[in-house]
Amino acid sequence: MKRPEDLRSHRWFGGDEVRDFSHRARARQLGLNAEEHLGKPVIAILNTWSGINPCHMHLRERAEQVSRGVWQAGGFPVEFPVATLSETYQKPTPMLYRNLLAMETEEVLRSYPVDGAVLMGGCDKSTPALVMGAASADVPAVFVPAGPMLRGHWRDQVLGSGTDMWKYWDDRRAGLIGDAEMSEIEAGLARSPGTCMTMGTASTMTSAVEAMGLSLPGSAAIPAVDSAHHRMAAASGRRVVDMVWEDLKPSHILTADAFADAITTVLALGGSTNSVIHLIAMAGRVGVKVGLDDFDRIARRVPVLADVRPGGEHLMEDFYYAGGVPGLLSRLVELDLLACDRVVATGRTLREELAGARVHNDAVIRPVSSPLAAEGGLAVLRGNLAPGGAVIKHIAAEAHLLTHTGPAVVFDGYADLKKRINDPSLGVTKESVLVLRGVGPLGGPGMPEYGMLPIPDRLLAEGVRDMVRVSDSRMSGTSYGACVLHVAPESFVGGPLALVRTGDLIRLDVPARELVLEVGEEELQRRRAEWVAPEPRYERGYGALYAAHITQADEGCDFDFLARPGVNPEPDPR
Ligand code: FES
Ligand code: MG
């Protein structure tokens, strides 16, 4: 147990030097009497609220409930506004800025008199960013997930954000509905604050973080506007104060077992492929070795149990009522797939936390005897086209495409794709393999979610719904199809994807985990010698820093100088 004089913040407030005096005087300026804060753990509430982030629009108010909990437990809450990563509005993609928020998180926690932290986020990349930063700073921390929005509604239809956006847009293009219907749908698709309510990247990552043990049990699925969300926020604030006294830090919670369980959870959820990159990056911060092959190995024994869109039928609100993450984990315990003796944020073991966990609706969280799919939804491919690996969410693909050889149709970047995909002279057939390159971590930049390349209109009209697609980009958690993603190394740095020419045969063999360019090594050598590296994307600023230090997808796309544990000197507040 720590004593008040052991607190980090004591070095700012507790001594008898002129700086301590100044820090105390400025706390009076903040409107606080000495007895209100001296000797109490300072809890930083890192808030990613912004007026332009609809997924986080309730977090400004929710921070008040966190503060309430911190005060109740004898802490001193201090809110820090940090960068917001809005999946909807930030371009070219918030993935470009994940590491910026991670750096900001780490440095705020390091440079201020902070003893513990509450991390408030949820919209896709904000979750890994906050966890990466807090893990590197290694101060006691609880993650408060923003929570999913309520189910969407239009007339008698239930709407899922993301998935139904595409569906109704296509209906309008086809003339099935008009502008009046469209504006009703516009108002019903995302009808409350909160993150996407399908099993996209947001709920995949907040569920993974809960499974790791950095959120209070049961947090991730609570709808953003439910009163339970207010109560969870206050409870998180109360708990982190005790974590400070107990000195329970991320480095104690984020063990190799915790990451293995997070991967297991993601796979049982049929979660987003983006989680592969994020979990590798998060593990790197604490020195846990997680690689692509861990996902493939674990995927072979984990059934998909969550029947939630886009892989299944239901939405996050249903998943919450069905028992949420604890319900899902209770089923994984039946299969003996979790390391239950590890400690979580409550200070208790996962086993203790799951003792009362139940599933209340077998249609939403399937029993282990009738899973949605017997094997996890993810496979890792290798071969001469992806020496560093690539991933495919094979449960989301048409089965006949999982072993397929076809001629490549190559696009260089998204603009080229948009310009030519419906060009009658493209010579594309349903056997073709659509290749998009120049959209990786450096090429994109930031690996935008272009990986679900559109099926050409002519083939769509013929009834083709899926094709093999290969790219060095990512795919939205709400997308589907035989899309090979995250090809590493990317074409921008001269990976073999850069050498593909239209007409080359590409072989995909998911059972054998292979992705092969059927071109002889001699010919590839010749093409490699001719290859000209593209011009850098950025001349200056953050983009130039990003370009100089970003790692490839198989390494988590962290910055090389951040992707390891290590201790920086503590600032001397005096
Ligand atoms: Fe924020 Fe989907 S846009 S979670
Ligand atoms: Mg998304």
TrEMBL record:
GO molecular function: dihydroxy-acid dehydratase activity
EC number in record: 4.2.1.9
Name of the top EC class for this enzyme: lyase
Residue ranges constituting the Dihydroxy-acid/6-phosphogluconate dehydratase C-terminal domain according to the UniProt record: 364-557
Keywords: 2Fe-2S, Amino-acid biosynthesis, Branched-chain amino acid biosynthesis, Iron, Iron-sulfur, Lyase, Metal-binding
Domain Dihydroxy-acid/6-phosphogluconate dehydratase N-terminal: from-to ranges: 40-352
One Pfam family recorded for the sequence: ILV_EDD_C
Statement: the UniProt record of this protein carries the keyword Iron-sulfur: yes
Domain of life: Bacteria
UniProt keyword Disulfide bond present: no
PANTHER family: DIHYDROXY-ACID DEHYDRATASE, HYPOTHETICAL DIHYDROXYACID DEHYDRATASE (EUROFUNG)-RELATED
Similarity section: Belongs to the IlvD/Edd family.
Identification of the protein by name: L-arabinonate dehydratase
Gene: araD
